[in-house]
Fold this protein.
Amino acid sequence: MLEAADRGVCIATAPLPEKSCGPCNYNIPLPEWLEHCLANVPAGRGDSCPTDPEALLALSFDFAYQLHSGQVRASGEPYIIHPVAVADLLRDIGGSAAVIAAGFLHDVVEDTGVTPNEIEARFGAEVRGLVEGVTKLGGIHFTNRTEAQAENLRKMFLAMASDIRVVLVKLADRLHNMRTLGALQPDKQVRIATETRDIYAPLANRLGIGRFKWELEDLAFKVLEPLSFREIQQEVASKRSDREDRLATTVQLLKSRLDAAGIKGCDVVGRPKHLYGIWSKMQRQQKAFHEIYDVAALRIVTSSVENCYRALAVLHDTFRPIPGRFKDYIGLPKPNGYQSLHTAVIGRHRPIEVQIRTADMHHVAEYGIAAHWKYKEGGSPADGDEMARFNWLRQLVDWQKEAAGEDHNDYLKSIKEDLFDEEVFVFTPKGDVVGLRKGSTAVDFAYHIHSEVGNHCQGVRINDRLCNLTTPLQNGDFVQIVTSKNAHPSLDWLNFVATPTARERIRQWYKRSHRDQNILRGKEILERELGRDGLESLLHGEAMARVTKRCNLANVDDLLAALGFGGVTQHQVTNRLREELRLQEAAAAPEVSNEELAKSLSEHSDLPSGSTNGIPILGLEGLEYRLGGCCCPLPGEVIMGAVALGNHGITIHRQDCSNLAQTPAERRLPVRWNPNSSEHRRTYPTQLRIEVLDRVGILKDILTQLSDSRINVSDARVRTAFSKPARIDLRIELSSCSQLQTTIGQIRSMADVLDIARTGIGA
C-alpha cells in the first residue's frame, strides 16, 4: 500500500457505522456482482458475523463505505472507489469471499478509527488476519525511505509466510494505485513506479499471476521511460494491421493441421506481447524495434497433457522449429506452478513464439496461486505440496531473520536478486527436482539443501563424475555433494557462488569461526603474559570487566577477540589490568583523611582559569606540545601530558595509553581538553584497522560511507593474502571521540566487515 499522502486520502474522523441491513443508494458506480450481493442481503443479516459469502461481501463493502465517507483521493473522486476496484480485481482472479472482503477493508485500520478487534467481531478472524497482513506500519517514523521500504517488505514477507493470500490483496491494491498514479506529483510517481517495477511485478511473476505482472510492468514502464513507452506504443500500433493479418493466416493454417491430425477442441489464438517485454528484449539484445520479430505470439490451449505434446509435433511438422528455443515446463514446472510448452518456429518468414498448454495450465498461468490455493477449516493450507511451491518465501523470511541488524540496502538488494532469478533445474540423488538461480554451482546446491551440508562440502559428483566445485550446474544434472567433518567454507567460494543465500551462509560462518579463532589467540597471548594459573578466574573477575569497558567493548570475549585480531595490544590490556588490580587493592586500604585528600587536590589545581578560548588544551600555555601517535587522543577523551627528555617538548597521550603508563610520575603533566576552545572545526588524525572479506569494491564502499559522513581520509593501505581476510589501514581526520564511536559503528555494520579497531599512527 501507499502512504496516505501518496494516495491523496483526506482522512476524516467518522463514527463507527451501524450495521447495515439492506441495500441503499451509494451514488457511485458498482460492479454488477456487488449490486447483486447488495440486493440479496436479507434484513437483519448484519446483526451477527456473516457466514454467507454474499452477506459477507455486501456487509464488508457497506462497512468500508461508511468509514471512508468524506475521504477523497488525489484525483478528487471518493476514496471508496479504490477499495471497490481492489475487491473487483481480487474477484477477477478467483479470490474467495474472505479475500474480496479484505480488499474492501484493507485501508480501514490505517485510515479510520476501526481496530482489528472490531473487524474480527464483525467479519471473523480470517478477514481480520488478511486485513492486518496488508496494513502497513502506521505511526512508526523511519529515518529514511530505504529503511521504511525494507521494513514494509519484511512485514509483507512475514505475513505471506503465514497466509499467502495476503499478497493477493497487496498486489491488487498496488495495481489499482498504479492505474491511477497520474494524480500524484511527478517525484512520487517515479518512486512508486520504481518500487513497483523492482518489487511488485517480479513478485506477481513468482506467484504466477501473469495478468498482474504484465500490467504492473507496463504501467511502471510508462512512468519511468515515457519516451520509450510512447515510441514502442506507436510502433506496435502502426504495424498492427499487417501483424494481425499474418497471425490470422498462421492461426487458420495451424487449426486446420490440428483438426487433420485428430486433435479436436484446440483453441489457437494470437496475442500481442506487452510493451515492457518488447522494450526489455530490445535493451537486452541491443536491437532496434524493427529487428524484434516476435512482438506477437501464438497460444495453443488443448484438452489434455497428451494433446499438448501431439500439438507440438504438428507445429514442428508445419513450421520449421528454431534450435535451442524449446522448453518443457510441463515436465519441469516453474517454482510458481507455471506449466507450458515453449517453442519458437519460422512462420511466414518471421519467427513466432508459441506456448502450448491445457486449459487448467492456462488458468494457473493467468491467475497464479488464486487458481489452485486450497484451505482447510481455519484458513490453513490444505496440501503440503501446495505450500512447497512457495518455499522461496520462507527462505527469504529465514534469511532476513538471520540478517537482522544488517544494512537495509543489502536486504533490498538480496530480495531483488532473488526475485529476478532465472532458474536452472537439477536433481538430488533421490530424484527430487531443485530449482536454483542460473549460474549456480555445487556450493549453491549444497547450501540450498542445508547450511551444514554447505559448511562441510568437500567435493561434488555431477552425473556420477567428480567435478570442481566451481562447475556451473546445467538443467537435468544429477548432483551429489561429498561432505567431510573436517571441511569448511573457503573465502574463494564467494567468487563463484550465484545465490544470495549461499553468500550469506559463507559470510556468517566465517564471521563466527574467525571470531572463535581470534578469541583463542587472544587467550593464548594472555596466558604467555600472565600465566595459566588463575587466568580463568581473572577473565571473569571485576577488574577484567572494567578493562573491557575502558576498551569500549561489550564483554570479555570481545576483548579477547580484539586482542587476537590486533585491535588492542598486549601491553594495553595488561597495563590496564594491573592498574585496575592496584585500584582494587587501594580500595581495600584504609580511607584517606580529609587533610590528606585536600593536600592531594591542591597539588593538581594549577590548571589556568583565565580567558583560554583560543587554546585547545588547557595546562600547556606557552609550551610546545604534540599529540602522541601511539594513541591519537581526540577531544572528549581523558588525556595526560608526558614531558619528553632531551628538550623534545610535551607529548599528549590518552590516560589509558600503554606508553604513558611507562612514563615516570614526575614527568607527567595534568592537562585537559578545553571545552570552550574556539577551534571547533579542527580535526585530529586517527588510525583505524579494518579486517574485511576480500572482494572487489569493499574499499570503495568503506570510503563512500566515510565520504557520506563528510570525513576526510588522508591515507589508505590494503594488505591481502590468498584465502585470508584483507586488512585495511585508514588514517582519517576526526573532531571528537563521539564522532569516532559513530564512525566505528557505521563501518562495523557493513556486511563484509569482520572487525574494526583503533590503532596508533603507523601501527
Notes: The chain has a mean pLDDT of 79. Residues 392 and 706 are 36 Å apart (CA to CA). The domain at 4-224 is CATH 1.10.3210.10 (Hypothetical protein af1432).
